[in-house]
Write a structure and sequence with these properties.
Number of domains: 1
Structural class: mainly alpha
Shape: globular
CATH class: Mainly Alpha
Order of helices and strands: HHHHHEEHH
Mean pLDDT: 95
Radius of gyration: 16 Å
Number of helices: 7
């Protein structure tokens, strides 16, 4: 069962890993961050953009955040300027941690119904499963970004949750 403690742990892990990955990406040139590298979202920049988009989309459903201005297909191009993207990531991570501090067992045990633009239909799922998906999605694409950064010669330090939190 997913607990509020799990949500808080994952939000803290997410924030720390994003700090590490963005610090590594900050050591690259803009052209290197934007270079097509064969990842699902193309580049390091595109992958980070997609993660920003997805966090905003899920949190619009979970906590009333503003939805991203574009669809999933355009998510890799959500933000152009690196400094603005880095600042947005830090802002969203702080908001995610604040939200995680408010999550209750009652909220987690409920269900959520939303219209999925990707599936083009209304969907309903248990909130605890959707919260796991939020963090799993972040970890999945951060793993891709980590591989791209490593291939570009950058290091992030440990990525294992028990050594970070």
């Amino acid at each position: 069962m997913v607990t509020p403690e799990y949500v808080r742990t994952m939000a803290a892990y997410n924030a720390e890993m994003n700090r590490r990955l963005y610090a590594a990406a900050d050591r690259l040139s803009d052209a290197e961050r934007r270079a097509e590298r064969g990842a699902f979202w193309g580049s390091i920049h595109g992958t980070f953009n997609h993660l920003l988009w997805a966090d905003q989309m899920w949190m619009s459903r979970f906590d009333g955040w503003e939805k991203p201005p574009v669809s999933i297909k355009q998510s890799a191009g959500t933000m152009d300027a690196w400094d603005a993207m880095r600042a947005k990531r830090a802002e969203l991570d702080a908001r995610l941690e604040e939200w995680a501090g408010r999550v209750s067992p009652e909220w987690l045990s409920g269900s959520l119904t939303w219209f999925s633009g990707a599936a083009q239909r209304e969907m309903s799922r248990k909130r605890d499963v959707l919260v796991v998906h939020l963090f799993n999605h972040q970890t999945h694409h951060r793993g891709q970004a980590h591989a791209l950064l490593t291939a570009a010669g950058q290091e992030t330090g440990d990525t294992d949750l028990p050594w970070i939190i």
